[in-house]
Amino acid sequence: MALQRRVDAAWAAVETHRQQVDARRRAQAVPVRELAKWQVQPLPVWTPGEDEEHTRLMGIVTAAAEALHAGIAEAGLTEDYATVQGLHAAAREA
Fold this sequence. Notes:
Blueprint: H1 2-28, H2 48-74, H3 81-93
């Protein structure tokens, strides 16, 4: 379960970063009320620093997922639906 929690925490960090970046982008975008109804609000691109942080966080996700896969294999389990869902449920309950 610790490995699954590690994966979950890594993905949560990616999601938090994405939300922070999106909040900044929305704050800097042209206000929707200034656009015609058929226009989509253009958002500024991610900054190089935001891209680098995303890449760093995804590296943590990858390492955590690889450790989880190795842990499942070492336990002699298969990565079938029941195993994966069981780990997700157990990690949420703990």
